[in-house]
Amino acid sequence: MRICVIGAGYVGLVSAACFAEMGNRVVCVERDGSRVARLARGEAPIYEPGLEALLKAHLASGQLSFSQHLATGIERAEIVFIAVGTPSGEDGSADLSHVLAVADELGERLQQACLVVDKSTVPVGTAERVAQRINARLGQRGKGFKVVVASNPEFLKEGSAIDDFMRPDRVLIGCDEPAGSELLRRLYAPFLRNHERLLCMSVRAAEFSKYAANAFLATKISFINEMAGLCARQGVDIEEVRRGIGSDKRIGTHFIYAGCGYGGSCFPKDVRALIRAAEQEGIEPGILRAVEARNALQKTLLFQALREHFSGHLHGRVVALWGLAFKPGTDDLREAPSLVLLDALLAAGVVVQACDPVATAAVAARYAPAVASAQLRLSESLYSVAEGADAVVLVTEWKQFRQPDFVRIRGSMRMPVLFDGRNIYDAKQLAQLGFLYRGIGRPALGQAREHAA
Ligand SMILES: NC(=O)c1ccc[n+]([C@@H]2O[C@H](COP(=O)([O-])OP(=O)(O)OC[C@H]3O[C@@H](n4cnc5c(N)ncnc54)[C@H](O)[C@@H]3O)[C@@H](O)[C@H]2O)c1
């Protein structure tokens, strides 16, 4: 099929590359010219495992190309995907300006009937608005056709996006016209050997389902984080409780890990957008408000723990941060818990030595003054940032942080203190090695023994 994907971000780029991999002819349209230039050279502008290899392969095969011009991208396209950003507006609702601008331009430039598909996460009723705007302009231009707009929300996870897209848990197709559903069913057939995972529904139900899914996952995280807070007070280790409840199939093992809060480009903004939608309908979204409030609190816990540990005397301390991206496997910093911690530490006069396998460049750009004054030192090595530190804080649980050489680390730190923001370490083992260990919702263990060297 001939496909156009508008927006070369995490979703647009992965979708375009994976559709090309299945033999479709894809043009990905991106308004940012420098991004298009990099993509045309086969360079991925974002970090996503496996993406660059797919881009290179399909640029070479001619199945995939990039353009800054919508008219080029939609020429003879049978399906046009809208995959531009829908950030939070000032009042928390989804800012649809990018989506609607694309709709207007499609109305101005389309020369043939095609199926338009919202892949961006958009509130209920958006497909109808997009269709109205496109078809009004087509009418003004005297075109004798109309487009149908479907919803196909995306469920990929950054860090495993290619795999998620190639082997989806399910594909949701919201379309009120059978011909549109059929076209999308054919497009996705190679991705779904088990067709029970293709779910067709009304446009509005598909739009709503994406928000409900993210809100539910965020709720699980905030629930376990609230339990963790109570565990810490009652001398219980939340990790034991997690195992104790996760084996119940009705609860499940996923998304019940206590930690320093969720971030990213989806959960925070989608929870906010759903809160706003409920308010607009006159419904009190009590659960969603609590989810958001708990998460905001959770992001402050590591700083509170450090302040308590140093009895309020943080100025001049050296703190090492392990992990900056909002989760492992991505360079995405949007709403990352690390940013809340970094802001608080820098404001308190702490010298921060931070590392991340892929996100340091973005952090350096964001914190240029602190980097220039050497209050923030960035590295890709967890060992170098631990050197001379009064405490290490694990913020993002990258695989390479899971089993470091703690004897070496203890020897290089000023004081062997470890704050585990994701509860990935064996507290007893660290205590035996001479660390003071503190997790989230776990009893503190061990005593920091100063290195005698
Ligand atoms: N990132 C995720 O993990 C994820 C997962 C599922 C769904 N989503 C949803 O998908 C949508 C896109 O998210 P993202 O993370 O890929 O966003 P992103 O910000 O990474 O990418 C959006 C891209 O669209 C481009 N763009 C904006 N307006 C344009 C226009 N008029 N023409 C061409 N390009 C334009 C931007 O320059 C940018 O490169 C959002 O609605 C998001 O909620 C994201």
UniProtKB/TrEMBL annotation:
PROSITE patterns: PROKAR_LIPOPROTEIN. Keywords: NAD, Oxidoreductase. Transmembrane segments: none annotated. It catalyses: UDP-alpha-D-glucose + 2 NAD(+) + H2O = UDP-alpha-D-glucuronate + 2 NADH + 3 H(+). It comes from the Bacteria. Its EC number is 1.1.1.22. Residues 320-427 form the UDP-glucose/GDP-mannose dehydrogenase C-terminal domain. Pathway: Nucleotide-sugar biosynthesis; UDP-alpha-D-glucuronate biosynthesis; UDP-alpha-D-glucuronate from UDP-alpha-D-glucose: step 1/1. Belongs to the UDP-glucose/GDP-mannose dehydrogenase family. This is UDP-glucose 6-dehydrogenase. It comes from Pseudomonas aestuarii.
